[in-house]
Amino acid sequence: MNTRTNTDTDFTPVDQEMYAKAFQLLDPDPTPEPAAPAASAAPAPAPSGRPAAPPVRLTGPVEKTLTDALALLDTHGWARFTLVHPDGARCSIGALRAAAGARNAAYCDAGNLLLDEARRQHGKKWETIPSWNDSHTGAQVRSVWEAAIRRARHMNI
Predict the structure, then answer these.
(1) How far apart are CA 36 and CA 58, in angstroms?
(2) I need a surface site. Which of 6, 72, 131, 152 has the fewest CB within 10 A?
(3) Count of H helices and E strands in the chain?
(4) Cβ partners under 8 Å of residue 134, min gap 6
(5) Of the spans 15-29, 35-49, 141-155, which averages the highest pLDDT?
(6) Are 45 and 52 in contact (CB under 8 A)?
(7) Per-residue pLDDT tens for 118-145?
């Protein structure tokens, strides 16, 4: 591509030395910009010299109760028609009670969220966690637990 310059313009040519001097006066001690970190690089050190810690996400009491209850079901097994089976398996409400330790606010809120999710997935007819638990398969029950945990995490409760 050929570009022609018109010499009949009103522009004054720039004196490169004067241009450089002007910027040096504006910024006498320029510091180089930091290079972009590589994808696999470690976090940049914090001002104290230690690596910066990743942000911490706090687990809310409802999410913790639901997560702990699901861990109990994973460890001891899931049951129908009984709160706690002689071999240690539990129904959903039995796992929820054991995880909460008491019928506290986290227990009530976790139960309400679990039942709400059960109604979302399996219809509005379910009035209690035990009636829903006893009428579904283990896979269906687990799906509701996992969705309730995701909702609690999303709601930060």
Answers:
(1) 30
(2) 6
(3) 6, 0
(4) 80, 81, 91
(5) 141-155
(6) yes
(7) 999 999 999 999 999 999 999 999 999 9
- Rounded Cα distance between 93 and 107, Å, is 10
Q: Which long-range contacts (CB under 8 A, 24 or more apart) does 26-34 make?
A: none
Structure token digits, residue 106: 């986290």
Q: Which long-range contacts (CB under 8 A, 24 or more apart) does 79-88 make?
A: 80/133, 80/134, 81/134
Q: What is the pLDDT of residue 11?
A: 55
Q: What is the DSSP letter of 78?
A: B
Give the whole-angstrom CA distance, residue 84 versus residue 99. Answer: 13
pTM above the 0.85 mark? no
Residue 81 CA: distances (Å) to CA of 19, 85, 91, 135: 85, 9, 7, 9
